[in-house]
Specification:
- By secondary structure, the chain is α+β, with helices and mostly antiparallel strands.
- The chain is built from two helices and three strands, in the order H-H-E-E-E.
- Helix content is about 40%, strand content about 25%.
- The chain has a three-stranded antiparallel β-sheet.
- The model has no long low-confidence stretch (mean pLDDT about 95).
Length: about 60
């Protein structure tokens, strides 16, 4: 289990489902992106530059 799996699994099931969907979309649309935790959030880089970060909060997912 990597850091991103641990991060996602720290949330309730209904939030995990959304976070896994986001993760899946990123992997599908940017298959070569490097996955890594950054700034306390799951993040993806392409060409050594940030592509996207996502995170769950009390009242929203960003």
């Amino acid at each position: 289990m990597n850091e991103i799996d641990k991060y996602i699994q720290s949330f309730p099931d209904e939030i995990q489902e959304i976070l896994y969907k986001i993760r899946g979309m990123v992997k599908e649309l940017a298959p070569g992106a490097e996955e890594k935790m950054a700034y306390g959030m799951p993040g993806y880089k392409t060409n050594k530059r940030p592509l996207i970060y996502f995170a769950a909060y009390k009242n929203h997912i960003g």
